[in-house]
Each structure stands twice: as C-alpha cells, then as structure tokens.
Design a protein that fits this description.
two-stranded parallel ribbon; 6 helices; 203 residues; globular; single chain; 33% helix; endopeptidase fold (from Nostoc punctiforme)
Length: 203
C-alpha cells in the first residue's frame, strides 16, 4: 500500500512539473517571448556546422548553436518541435524548399533542414503568417520572427521580444549573430528579408 502511495505522489509531482500546452495565441506568445529571453542567459559557442542529431526532439550540443538554434530552442520550450514540424512538411513538399536547389540535397534531412534560415522562411510562410516587411518599428510585435541578409547573401534570424529601448522605442530582438544569444536593438541593422508569426500546429 505504501509503495502505491509513493508512486502516486511521484506521478503527481511529475505532472505538476510538466509544462502545460498554451491554450491561446496570447499565452503562446507570452511564453515564447519569455523562453527567448531566457536563452540570453546561456553561454553558447557559435557553431553552424552539420551535426547528426536524433529525431524527433534532437538538438546540437547545448553549449553550441547558430541563430536558428535559438529559435528552435525557444519554440521547444513551449512544446513545439520545429525539427519535427519542418521535417514532416519537407517530406510531403520537398520541391518547394530550397534544400533541393540551394544545397543539392537529394532528400529531407532532419538533422539539418530546420537549422537553415531559408528553409525556416519557407516553413513559416507555409504554416504560419507571412507579414509585410516595412521600416516601421510599430509593425513588429513581440513573438514575431524576422529574417535578414547580413550582406553577401548571408541569412540570419531572430525573434522580437517585449522589451523596448528607451532611446529608440523599438522592441528588442533575441538573436545569435556569432557571440551567443543576445537581446539587442538590431531590428533595422540589416536588410530584412522576412517577417513571420508562427503559433505551432495547434493554434
């Protein structure tokens, strides 16, 4: 009897610690933004090289990553596995993704496809909301995903968060441009190539 009671207590504790699924887009955005900001407390060595990882819920080593990995990890914190979502869409629609032409990949690869900005741009446009690219700071809201060309056709991605700078009035962006995840006023630092919102497959 005591053993069953102990097991019941442990199960209850586990259930209490399991994150609940957001029930609205507002809650999802709030938690996504919090997850993105939390990423800025991690020390990450920038590394974009190919790494074979498990599927689903695979990740590169926790102390490494590129700009896309900050987006992936932020979404995973609110229950959305971009590795799985991107891979499943690419299996069914490989021809619409740049992996086939840009990297000459013969088939989807769940270890790298979701870690490439151009693939994420296609995915967010297909499965989320593609929003206007403007030079108006007020058009960009917390939770929005922004992609840039850093120059020389080098893609980059970040997520807008709900904190503003007092001098510019713009929302800050969490991104990793080579020095680990940071929260900075960089929205208009480079040429914007995409503007998206994505609430996961359930919302």
């Amino acid at each position: 009897m005591a053993g069953w009671l102990t097991l019941a207590v442990l199960c209850a504790l586990c259930a209490a610690q399991t994150p609940t699924t957001p029930t609205s887009r507002e809650e999802f955005t709030r938690r996504l933004v919090a997850a993105a900001i939390e990423r800025t407390h991690h020390t990450i060595r920038y590394e974009s090289a190919y790494v074979g990882i498990p599927y689903p819920s695979g990740d590169v080593p926790a102390d490494t990553g590129a700009c896309t990995d900050e987006i992936i990890r932020s979404y995973r914190a609110v229950g959305v596995d971009l590795q799985k979502e991107v891979h499943e869409d690419m299996v069914q629609n490989f021809d619409v993704y740049p992996s086939k032409t840009k990297w000459h990949a013969p088939r989807p690869d769940p270890s790298i496809d979701h870690r490439r900005v151009p693939n994420l741009m296609v995915f967010f446009e297909r499965k989320g909301e593609s929003l206007p690219v403007t030079r108006r700071a007020e058009d960009y809201a917390p939770g929005d995903l922004v992609t840039w060309d850093l120059g020389g056709n080098v893609p980059h991605i970040g997520i807008v968060v709900g904190q503003k700078t007092p001098w510019s009035g713009r929302y800050l962006v969490v991104h990793n441009v080579g020095e680990g995840p940071k929260m900075e006023d960089v929205l208009f630092n480079w040429k914007i190539t995409g503007h998206y919102r994505y609430f996961g497959p359930g919302l």
